[in-house]
Amino acid sequence: MLEKRIKIKNETGLNARPASLLVKEATKYKAESFIIKDGNEYNCKSIMNIMSMLARQGEEILLKVEGSDEEKAFKGLTDLIENLSEE
């Protein structure tokens, strides 16, 4: 299992567009991926889970990835979250 604490930099947090990008990236992989925020676990492959998390700019989340392709999934998800921006 790989995990990393990540601070949300995107000014609108993980709202609809960033959440959909996150889910799209997570579903590319067999590995299970979750975000832990405020003691709750959210499945990265569920748009409803990610949007209900209400992650805002400046908040810290914990990304956890586990599975056969966890290294690829971890890199893809970490890069996406760390580099999100509203365009």
TrEMBL record:
Compartments (UniProt record): Cytoplasm
Domain HPr: 1-87
Keywords, sorted A to Z: Cytoplasm, Phosphotransferase system
CDD domains from the UniProt entry: PTS-HPr_like (cd00367)
InterPro entries, A to Z: HPr (IPR050399), HPr-like (IPR000032), HPr-like_sf (IPR035895)
Entry's Gene Ontology BP terms: phosphoenolpyruvate-dependent sugar phosphotransferase system
GO CC annotation terms, alphabetical: cytoplasm
Primary location recorded for the protein, binned into one broad class: cytoplasm
UniProt cross-references to SUPFAM superfamilies, sorted A to Z: HPr-like (SSF55594)
NCBIfam families reported for this sequence: PTS_HPr_family (TIGR01003)
Name of the protein: Phosphocarrier protein
Native source organism of the sequence: Natronincola peptidivorans
